[in-house]
Amino acid sequence: MRRVLAVLLVAAGIALAPAALAQTAPTETPIVIGTSYALPSAAYGGTREINVWLPPGYAEGEATYPVLYLLDGGTTWQDFHHISGLAQLGTVNGTTRDVIVVGVASVDRRNELALPTENPELIAQYPTQGQSERFRGFLRDEVQPFVEGRFRTSGETALMGESLAGLFVVETFLKAPEMFDAYVAVSPSLWWDGGELAAQAGAHLRDHSNDPRTLILTLGDEGPEMQAPMEVLTANLHRHAMPGLTWDYTPRPTESHATIYHGAALDAVRQLFPAPTP
């Protein structure tokens, strides 16, 4: 009735008093997408940002859920919002199973996500680089136990990252494959250290067990520096992958390094967590 009266008064040319205008002002309610945790870390001697998105029905029952661990998973200038949005979309339109998204924020990407190099130019340019093993230990010993202890997880896990985070995904798949069930590397920076990780892939693959595991690789039109080591990696996968590994490489020639991630991540989420058939 107050709004109807306001409209009638305006139509009649009668000015509204400031108090009346204030009463019709919209209310503000924050939009809550997930929960951010400051996780104490012995590995880093302080707290680290962990962001968690739960499926809409999480609080309504006792179901357990797979977990998608997202590198560069911060909420500011990183990827938590758009990847958790893909999980939310799959829930809404029924194209994927419900999944918990855990974003692990980066602080110093070349320190945390790049493996060590002896290249003097890279060392000079990125003096803090090369501590990926430390970050992997943080994920294994601190992040995963926190998530498994606090949330209803099914035991099914995946790790996703793009660019340097994609390099870390590939390194973790090769060196510590037991950490996750599935790995998604979008435009991985395999150029790092002259493509040494891709060149060593065969030796690492020969040490893998035959446990079921999934690896998803994709790359845009990003030039020979990115393409050449990807071809070395896929050649090693063809030669040395165990039968238990399901892997695929999808070139995306219409995408660049800046545009590839969202669409590639959507395809990966649909592949890894398809909706159950009726």
TrEMBL record:
It holds the Pfam family Esterase. GO terms for molecular function: hydrolase activity, acting on ester bonds. Keywords: Hydrolase, Signal. The lineage of its organism: Bacteria, Pseudomonadati, Pseudomonadota, Alphaproteobacteria, Caulobacterales. InterPro entries: AB_hydrolase_fold, Esterase-like, Siderophore_Hydrolase_D. Belongs to the esterase D family. This is Esterase. Residues 1-22 form the signal peptide.
